[in-house]
Write a structure and sequence with these properties.
single chain; alpha+beta; 4 domains; 5 strands
């Protein structure tokens, strides 16, 4: 019970005001301190209420001032709205008067604005602007000023449009040389002399340049056209007043951009992938064999022709070795000699027709390998279409183009191999025919002597 009383006293002390100076000893002192604290709290509340009543009049004055300011601003707003409407009516009347006074000049200035805008756009993409930078800025400002307001162009501004058009037409027929900053293919910027061919092309150091869109700067083409075009660039840079041949792009770079995107010979071969390399390897082997056979048969045919003019048989040519059979068997009968000669001819035929069959096989296999590469490439193309859809025609065209490269390579190898085989086979058959003809003559001669 005593412990509970102490807890109650501690709770009352915790909730009492800070006015209590010391901890009470008994319940009477606790009650007295609570009464004193309640009195102090009530006195503080009365003081706050007095201060609030004293400030109430001040707050009412602030409210009245705010209301008066609001009414004043509303009156000013109404006055400004009326003035704005009056100004709009005056402006409409002035614009109508301006329109009536301008008459046909309004149409003239409209055309001037359109021409200035179109000319500024043309000059931004012109090679002439590299030599004369900043030409399009004034025209762009003029077109923007005439379009955003009713300001009329001055005589000087009209003459600037005419001058820009006249300058563009004049410079389009000139070949000019000047120095400017060129961005190389490596990204380095170098100041060097360049040659401008009208409004069509610009070259430097034997290479074509391109205009960076939206600027007056030029850069080297990362991919240059083929050598026959670059040779004309060198002739232009090194030439004097005499006419020179030059690859001109009348579209100002569009055709040149498409031309450099076309793959070269080595890139086409790389598109053929493994099958293409196999076809080319077979073609190279066939060409070497055909070259060896051509030289061999040419030398062999010359020796055979010389042997035809001689009676003495020589061992350095097929005909001489066949004719030597007659001297080797002088006493045999006709039938035996015929068999010996046939044996000698058959012994010479493999040497004459050696490797010709391999050339024929290459001429047949090469197109089949090309067809294999085409089918493989088409399979890859259709797999790409399955994954990415048909939204991009370039994807389909590029895949089909790569697939057909192997067919082209196969035909490129097969056609020469077929022609070479036909030529070499004809030469070998001619030599064999000479051997058979001479063998028949020897047999006829022996038969006549025996009879």
């Amino acid at each position: 019970m005593l412990k509970l009383k102490h807890l109650l006293v501690a709770a009352v002390l915790a909730l009492s005001t800070p006015v209590l100076a010391q901890e009470p000893v008994n319940l009477d002192q606790l009650l007295q301190q609570l009464q004193e604290g309640k009195f102090a709290q009530s006195q503080a509340n009365q003081e706050r209420e007095a201060r609030f009543r004293a400030q109430a009049e001040q707050q009412q004055q602030i409210l009245r001032d705010a209301i008066a300011q609001r009414d004043q601003l509303e009156a000013l707003s109404a006055e400004l709205e009326g003035q704005f409407e009056a100004n709009e009516r005056d402006l409409a009347a002035l614009e109508e008067a301006l329109t009536q006074r301008m008459g046909s000049l309004k149409e003239l200035f409209g055309v001037l604005q359109q021409v200035a805008g179109d000319t500024a756009s043309t000059l931004q993409n012109s090679y002439v602007s590299v030599e004369y930078p900043g030409r399009s800025d004034a025209l762009s400002d003029l077109a923007q000023k005439m379009g955003s307001s009713s300001k009329l162009a001055s005589i000087e501004e009209i003459e600037s449009v005419w001058f820009a058009l006249q300058q563009e037409m004049t410079e389009s027929g000139k070949v000019s040389e000047f120095e400017t900053t060129v961005t190389l293919a490596s990204g380095e910027k170098v100041t060097k002399p360049v040659v401008r061919v009208g409004t069509f092309n610009m070259v430097a150091d034997g290479k074509y340049l391109e205009l960076i869109p939206g600027t007056d700067a030029v850069a080297e083409l990362v991919r240059q056209p083929s050598g026959r075009y670059l040779s004309t660039v060198e002739a232009l840079e090194q030439g004097d007043d005499n006419p020179v041949r030059f690859g001109l792009d009348p579209t100002g770079g569009s055709i040149l951009g498409l031309l450099v995107q076309a793959p070269g010979t080595m890139e086409r071969i790389e598109q053929g992938s493994t099958v293409g390399y196999i076809i080319l390897a077979l073609g190279a082997i066939g060409l070497l064999i055909a070259l060896e056979r051509f030289v061999t048969l040419t030398l062999m045919g010359g020796k055979v022709k010389r042997q035809l003019k001689q009676n003495e048989a020589k061992q350095d040519n097929p005909l001489g070795r066949v004719m030597a059979v007659q001297d080797k068997y002088p006493q045999v009968d006709t039938e035996t000699l015929e068999l010996k000669l046939s044996e000698a001819i058959l012994r010479e035929v493999p040497k004459i027709t050696r490797n010709l069959t391999f050339i024929k096989i290459i001429s047949v296999v090469a197109p089949l390998l090309g067809l294999l590469g085409t089918v493989t490439g088409m399979i890859n193309t259709f797999q790409a279409i399955t994954l990415f859809g048909t939204g991009d025609p370039k994807l389909m065209a590029g895949g089909i183009s790569q697939a057909l490269v192997t067919t082209v390579l196969g035909l490129v190898v097969a056609i020469p191999m077929t022609l070479l085989f036909a030529t070499l086979n004809t030469r070998s058959r001619n030599i064999v025919h000479v051997l058979q003809e001479q063998a028949s003559g020897i047999i006829a001669e022996r038969s006549e002597r025996s009879h």
